[in-house]
Predict the structure of cysteine dioxygenase.
Amino acid sequence: MRPEDVGLSTDLLFFKSKSSSKGTPRITYATIYKCDNFSMCIFFLPPKAVIPLHDHPGMTVFSKLLVGSMHIKSFDWLDPATSSFSTPSAKLRLAKLVLDSEFTAPCNTSILYPTTGGNIHTFTAITPCAVLDVLGPPYSKEDDRDITYYQDHPYRKYSDGDTDQGGVEDHCHGWLEEIDVSRYLKMDGVAYLGPQVIDG
């Protein structure tokens, strides 16, 4: 998929900006389509904007960077039954690092599955960028698919100096702690002005 497929152009003023505004950068999003089975949405991130680490419970996600450059970091939960480790706190859960890299459009589509592929991820904009997310099924509090945000901590922070406990390696694992981001996450909805999705 290309930017023009959803009515975007790299000539738009938003994508020309090289600097970020003061304070927390404000993220905008446009919903292309939503039904009971899936949703399609574009997120617009100014430089240095961050979509915090969050999950997609029971969902498959197709994520496509359309314009710009961003850093993506993602995790999958580690199954306690497959590893021998002690949890330092009830608020922490061990996860395996899947991805920690920078991407520049055009690039391949990322596919996140309910338990693999980096279902828990965070975006950090390097330049002004736009990313398309297709979620199936979509978020739904009524169906126990509400979004949860996390803060990641290095594995060694709670490992008591043991960097290889029960086969868990320091550099490719981390502890995730559920957090409340409502105070500082600034995200506004805008109208989608691109080609419409027509129900068949």
